Amino acid sequence: MKLRADQSGNRGLPMPLWLQGALESAQSAILSALLVLLFTVWVWASGGLGSTGADFMARLAGQAWLLIHGVPLTVHLYSGSSSAQDLGGPLTLLPWGLALIPFLLSWRAGKRLARASYSDQLWQAALGALLIYGGFGFATAFVCGTEDVKINLVTAALLPLVPVLAGLTCGARRESRSWSRLIGVEAVDWISRTSQHSRWAGSYMWTVVRAAFLAIMAALSLSALLLVVSLAVHWAGIVSVYQGLGADVSGAAVLTLAQAGYLPHLVVYTLSWLSGAGFSLGTGSAAGAFGTAVGPVPAIPVLAAVPAGPAMFGPVGVLVPVIGGVLAGWWFLREGENHFDEWLSIRIRTRWFTATVSTVVLAAAIGAVGGVFALLLAWVSRGSLGLGRLSDIGPDPLRLGVFVAVELAAGTVLGHASAPWLERRQLSELPEPAGATRSSFSASKSAD
Known about the structure:
mainly alpha, 2 domains, 4-stranded antiparallel beta sheet, 3-stranded antiparallel beta sheet, flat, disordered N terminus, disordered C terminus
């Protein structure tokens, strides 16, 4: 990108990378703000916000823009009595599904900035982009904060940078097609300078992390599938809640969009329900595979899909994270990076002992890493709606992490132990070479 290009053919001076990053970031911020503003204007014009003025509508749009970027708000709701009791609280249950809007816009910006930068200069563009986006968040919080909705200015300037930085990084990585080219470090040369034992240990641990990621993603995918099944089974109840609210088109659209923003939370809650850890739907309410005791909840249609009472087949849900562990153990064997088992076999000749110890250590490692992943997912999906007893929603992070770690470890033992048999079965089912009889094929293998 150039600062100026006229008809004389002079292409002008190259635009500084920090300025180009600032312009790309400003475009992303303005586009995301326009999307939120257009939707808010539609609801306001259709009477969905009552007899409020344009200033209230504009502040509400700014507050919604901050929410989709992960900025918590503090809501104050005062009762009509003389005591003026505050019924509100912190709004920390954030719609992470809607954070895809700034993430995808920043993905586009990251690709364009990587195209315009050398590998060791991308930080300049990223720094300019983050400074401008943080300034947008600070200005929005400063303008849109009211007595009823308090916004921390520092938080508003920093938290929007999380989805933006993730989008910039993923977009730049997609364009450069290599992490080493992205950061200007030759990873192969750096690894070659380390010792052989360090390389083995590093490849073993990196494979463990990838296997744990595969396990948790498989468990989440199965949880999402079962969530869809539950929504389909309880569809009549969901429709009844919509009809009971009596909302018009704009109100129903707002409610549906808000529920779509919380779909990632619902998937994590489903995993927590299946694992047996359970989750909370407000103070004093708990839902899990081994029993559900839910008190009064707000009229949110998607909550009609929560199973009520004891679930007959609920304990079977424990198999979902176990299946994720089975896939992780099988995948780990196919990667061929079990260097701990190789090291142990060199020192101890008793194979049944080394195989057992290495499998148990592998299961413990994959379970621990997967449990950390589950703990982080529970932490970001837990929060408060700032309304009375709805100040405690979501799974307990430590409880979910422990349950998932144990179940993934059990599945890893099964998957890694059965993987050799599965691999031999696949090899035996391979087709023979064309034009060769089975006896000649076997003879050729024996000769080799």
